[in-house]
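[job 0412] stage=fold_complex status=start
inputs:
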Amino acid sequence: MPESQALDALRQFVLERDWGQFHSPSNLAKSISIEAGELLECFQWSDSPTSEVRDELADVLTYCYLLADRLELDPEEIVLNKLEKTREKYPVEKARGKSTKYDNL
Amino acid sequence: MPESQALDALRQFVLERDWGQFHSPSNLAKSISIEAGELLECFQWSDSPTSEVRDELADVLTYCYLLADRLELDPEEIVLNKLEKTREKYPVEKARGKSTKYDNL
Amino acid sequence: MPESQALDALRQFVLERDWGQFHSPSNLAKSISIEAGELLECFQWSDSPTSEVRDELADVLTYCYLLADRLELDPEEIVLNKLEKTREKYPVEKARGKSTKYDNL
Amino acid sequence: MPESQALDALRQFVLERDWGQFHSPSNLAKSISIEAGELLECFQWSDSPTSEVRDELADVLTYCYLLADRLELDPEEIVLNKLEKTREKYPVEKARGKSTKYDNL
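[job 0412] stage=fold_complex status=done
writing structure:
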């Protein structure tokens, strides 16, 4: 897996605190949802986010990196793989300029 | 911002389809929550995930990268910044081996 | 719509504070997700919930009632209607004792 | 607990299919988040919901009713109890017309 300063720091942080025991894939998936809700709260009553958006987005990314690591997945790689599937569902000529879901294009 | 093959591919993908118009920070934050729910669904009735976990985690990361880009934030940087704040809330001597929230340590 | 003491109290509460202006269906849907994340946080590291579970479940229900009201829907009625659709997707003889999704039964 | 036609029907539905085994409080809390994400998806790219909003809101309510039942809580009662706490955090004279969170009023 390519080097990532953030992931190295996260691994070290978790190891020092003996927190790996709580980081089952299931608990990490729950954590991603929990933090996604806190990120969304920055936009709860307005389309312009509160200043906490930086830290809340960081929290979602943190748990995503931890889950990817736990499942031995590379974030860059799985995003690129999924993008290829999305490319087939949304060919440019059909999807350009539309927010319609692929099964209604 | 450091090079990221995934982000470059995502930017190109969105540009080709003229989808930037739908990617307000607010819509991207909603999308992160939506995909986090789909990721969680891989663990709905069991702690062992279904095979869709790769693609669902990729979807959450995808929208996180797009939101970071839209807000001119670097994912690595904001994760490291937030980690420093978390380090202060959870000193090793107090937090080691416990899942307790910081206000109850 | 049948009488509901909780809904009456919520309507009064919102009216007194002139908060209806913030309660677009979109904002209420975001709020439901946000509160669902806080409810899930009661189970983040353990299958046994923290004591906040009562209030967090109340928050999800609160926004559900407000959204139903805003869309002129009756909670009891829409739950019963959806149940009929679910009954067709999960006939007892096929679904009994299994957590499998309907498209894999 | 007061009579609720929807809850009675849900209990019967779950019993017939022997699904109670999957309905731990933790799994139900996950389900609420999952369905909240599907509800939010009705508003993903627009403030006007798609037609699925009825069924998606019904799904969130369904799991909320099941979790309340599992924890021996009455939805009406916990909503009213929480409202009293919210009343103290948001006195009319301070909160009227504002979407500000209580710790910033």
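[job 0412] summary: The radius of gyration of chain D is 17 Å.
[job 0412] exit 0
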